[in-house]
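Worked problem 6 (solution included).
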Amino acid sequence: MSENETEDTSGDVGIPESNVEEATDEVALEEEGGAQGGGVSVKDVAKAIGEKVGDTSKSVWAMTKETLQKAEGKIKSSDIYADTEDEALSKIQEMIGENRFQEQVKQLKQKEEKKKAGKQRKSWFRGSKKDGEEVESTEEVTAEPNTEESKDDEHVELSNKWDFPWSPLAEFNVEIKDLLSAFCKWSREEVVDGDGEEASNLKFNISKAFRRLSSYANWMEKNCDKFSDPLTVESIAKPAQAFAMKLSHDGKDRLVWWLDVKKMNLKAISSKKITVFDSIRFAVWLTHFIMFDSKAQENGMLFIEDLMGIGFWKFWTTFPMEVGVQMDRLTIGVLPVKMKGAYVLNAGNLMKVLFAMMKPFMSKKMRQRMITIGPNQDHTVVVDELGGLEFIPVDCCGLAGTLEKDLLADLIPPAPEEENEDDAAGDGKDTGDQTVENAGLDNIEDENL
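Solution. The predicted structure is:
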């Protein structure tokens, strides 16, 4: 296991109810959809986040913690820096070469050990008597190994993850160099002068970039079974239509990722018409689209989600949890794009509880950038942050945007007219007073990213 992939089993059995109760001290849970239909209880929340994800041994809570802790990447005293992008690319290629060699040596040793283990030998003792005393004699016999099992034991596939065979490079008309460049740009550390202004000289933290690149390569290798068929826009069209996500650029040339829950076809997603397999393929395609967006690389991205029309608890229990956790891991823990802010519109009390539970595992900067806005709050703060209605897609998140086409409009055809039924999409609003938290993103220092 590489240094950037530390095993965390502390949350594998879910979160203790006492921790949930602490997060609910200041929030009354009054949403619809509790276990008994009379509100969401502490036990409901603890049980939901304690569920195992897919065929893993980890809970939703454990994987969420791991993802949040990887959000910004660690900075270590031993990290290596570069002054220019060309120098950064050269150094990261050297690190890949060194790591490839080390991993191949390790894999070849494992292969040799398995070959030795395959040569099973049995010995037994045969008793004989000499001068009335029993004497033990030994005879070593080589057992005939099972041919098929022997082949399996001796075979060790050498990893080719550093060739990035599962990355959809051709789909986006890019090369490995472009992929590495995205991670180098993500690792830039902006020097701040005494007045708090960003200086023009940037440093590339190559060690930090390589740690995230390793997470990316490992994730793609671990999930390579999902990419035996190439990732193309045609292959992900149906899940893309069901999720109905949009992408745009704002007035500051940041990429904006839109998720309007009431536009999603939750019936198709929850009924497995759109499988977890297909959903994850779509998530991987979309994250690569974002990764190779030049404006996202330079200026980062915002995430905006609207929960109007469905209670958060209903959404939580309807949306496939494995898909949600993997999307979080891809976007927060693997994607080499700086998250400049996340707005959750029409957020209810349960959302605030979950956010309060996650806060201890976020950096101060990340906490400042997570902004919840309730149904009765002024949403124009989002419009102002983006630079005006012309940067907001039409009929998206209830913000009266005027942008006719988002970045995906010409790639993914609109879905056939099909309404989400009430039993899939939910029919209520979150309740409870809300607050707008830290709406001004401009004054947030970019310390580590």
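Discussion: The two ends are 24 Å apart (CA to CA).
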